[in-house]
Amino acid sequence: MDKFIFALYSFKTAWEFTTKHRLWGYYIIPAIVSLLVFGTLLFFIWQLATWVSGIFMTLLPADWLSGGWLSGLLSAVVFGIALLFCLKMYRYLMLILLSPALALLSEKLQQIWHNTPERPFDLSQLLTDVLRGIQISLRNLFIELFLTITLTIIGLLLSPISPIIALLIFVIESYFVGFSMIDYRNEFLRLSARQSRELIWENKGFTIGIGMTFNLLLWIPVLGVLIAPMLAVTAAGIGMNKLADRAY
User: Fold this and answer.
1) Are 183 and 196 in contact (CB under 8 A)?
2) DSSP character at residue 121
3) 189: domain range?
4) Distances from the Cα of 85 to the Cα of 38, 89, 195, angstroms
5) Between vectors from CA 199 to CA 193 and to CA 204, what angle results, nearest 5°?
6) How many domains does the chain have?
């Protein structure tokens, strides 16, 4: 639990670190891309939800819809599910499309933290890092989808425990997002994918805390989408460095 709380505090430290070392320039282009990705996704998924909602309306008897409350409830449920789906798709599209920018920001952060000279720009190494990030994101996506679908089916079959299932799904989503953010730091230290997985699992409380804060930031209109990815990778890098130094 202490590592989970420490993860939440790491976002405050990340904000201060970013301001102190003038790293906001690393946020600008990723923020624009992040906003465009989220806006585009939201537009298409909203259109899909409108279409699905309309189909349901035509299938229901007219007298059921006369009061207006049922159609309103149905629309709210459909659009709520659409928004949750949009956030899930955004997370992984963001991790894939912003992988180069997140890798560069993480590398800059680690160079400042460890007081090491800047490495000469190496395109082949950057591409290797980006490919690793994409592979991990896709692997995590498939595992997360499998667990989410399995738990959703269990929740539908055992409705009394559905609130617990929903919370568990949120924790799983948070773990995998935090995993991706922390791996940028582990990649800089040249840990293998297996070593990175083991280290992240060792610090699962911290990992869940990073991912959960990221997910909650997304609910802040516009600002959340603009800063959440870069702030999360900064918080993950600083936090893991402190955990490694036992300075938390």
Assistant:
1) yes
2) P
3) 2-24+98-245
4) 12, 6, 31
5) 120
6) 1
Q: Is the pLDDT of residue 41 over 90?
A: no
CA distances from 133 to 88, 149, 213 (A): 17, 24, 20
- Nearby residues of 4 by Cβ (< 8 Å), 6 or more positions away: 205, 206, 208, 209
What is the 8-class DSSP label of residue 60? S
* Residues contacting residue 223 through CB under 8 Å, at least 6 positions apart: none
Distance CA 204, CA 56 (A): 42
R_g of the chain computed on alpha carbons:
20
Any domain includes 67:
no
Predicted confidence at residue 121, as pLDDT, reads 62
**Amino acid letter for position 86:** C
| Structure letter (DSSP) for residue 1 | -
Per residue in 136-188, pLDDT (tens digit) is 777 888 888 888 888 888 877 777 787 888 889 889 989 998 998 999 888 88
- Amino acid letter at 97? L
Instruction: Quote the CA–CA distance of 86 and 39 in Å, as a whole number.
Output: 10
Tokens 């948070």 correspond to: 174
Confidence check: pLDDT of 69 > 90:
no
**Domain annotation covers residue 61:** no
Look up the pTM and report it.
0.81
Rounded CA-CA distance 25/30 in Å is 10
Please identify which residue in the block is written with the tokens 């409705």: 159
CB atoms near residue 83 (< 10 Å): 15
Q: How do residues 121-134 score in pLDDT, each as one tens digit? A: 666 766 776 777 77
Distance CA 94, CA 37 (A): 7
